[in-house]
Amino acid sequence: MIEEPPLLTIRRRPSPAAVPPHPLFRDAPTGWLVDAMDGRGAMDAAIKPLAPEVAGMRRFVGTALTCWCGPNDNLALMAAVSLAEPGDVIVAASEGFGGAGMAGDLVAGMARNRGVAAIVTDGMVRDREGVTAVVMPVFCRGVTPNSCVRSGPGTVGLPIVVGGLPVNAGDLVVGDGDGIVVVPQDRLDDVGRRLASIAAAERDAESAVRAGQMERPEIAALLASDRVRWIA
Questions:
Q1: Per-residue pLDDT for 16 more than 60?
Q2: How are beta strands 179-183 and 172-176 bridged, if at all?
Q3: Contact 165/46 with Cβ under 8 angstroms?
Q4: Distance between alpha carbon 175 and the CA centroid of its chain, in Å?
Q5: In this structure, what are the phi and psi dihedrals at residue 154, rounded to the nearest 5 degrees?
Q6: C-beta separation of 156 from 85 below 8 A
Q7: What DSSP letter does each residue of the chain carry, written as one string?
Q8: What is the rounded CA–CA span in Å between residue 103 and residue 90?
């Protein structure tokens, strides 16, 4: 017989929310961060900004405050809002449930009042117009008018999986129009160093294209080599 679980299991914070260790994280496109992590690190492509047309809702950087809600429930998300600190990104796992919204304008408004940087979920949300009026960055799988229950069980501050990625409290979470990237906390220094080189290379490449470049030199060299077989 399974013992009745507690409604919430919450891991206490060991320290205040972490600050991104490299200033480039603040403005780097998610694609650069992925390049700094060997081509991986993005959540499922279906998780996108709720209102990308609103400047204040399509870009954020912050520290993960994780919560697992399960499908059709947002008790843990509500607890996470109560426990959030300025700069947190509330990352809510709902197992991709599409039948009801995890949050709406009131949840977004309370999160904004606490200084939360963004809400990210692998599920749905509701009240698009209201959330947009709050100008809280919300990234989700879609929108539905349906509402969920608030019954638990759930967790806050424990490891979760969202959009195919493991996420731990304290990880860096970055969102923009392309999607969501998670940088594990123990990789922040390494990724920050690599990001500086990638930013320089990207800017050089962009300058070359603006100056009229029509192909990458390495591709031109390959096409001119004996490693390509041409057929009629």
A1: no
A2: antiparallel
A3: no
A4: 5
A5: -160, 175
A6: no
A7: -PPPPPSEEEPPPSSSPP--SSTHHHH--HHHHHHHTTT--B--TT-EES-TTSGGGS-EEEEEEEEE--TTB-HHHHHHHHH--TTEEEEEE-TT--SSBS--HHHHHHHHHTT--EEEESSEE--HHHHHHHT--EEESEE-S-B-B----EEESS-EEETTEEE-TT-EEEEETTEEEEE-GGGHHHHHHHHHHHHHHHHHHHHHHHTT--S-HHHHHHHTSTT-----
A8: 11
Quote the tokens at residue 90: 């509330």
Tokens of 161: 């999986």
Does residue 20 carry a pLDDT above 80? no
d(CA 111, CA 114): 5
pLDDT in tens, 148-197: 999 999 999 999 999 999 999 999 999 999 999 999 999 998 999 999 89
Give the domains, in start order, of the chain with CATH numbers: 8-200 (3.50.30.40)
CA dist 195 and 128 (Å) reads 34
Q: Quick check: 18 pLDDT over 70? A: no
Place of tokens 């949050």: 103
User: What pLDDT does 73 receive?
Assistant: 96
Q: What's the confidence (pLDDT) of residue 202?
A: 86
**Surface-to-core class of residue 221, CB atoms within 10 Å of its CB (0-12 exposed, 13-18 middle, 19+ buried):** exposed
pLDDT exceeds cutoff 60 at 52: yes
pTM recorded for the entire structure: 0.91
The confidence score (pLDDT) of residue 19 equals 56
Q: Peptide bond before 137: cis, by omega within 30 degrees of 0? A: no
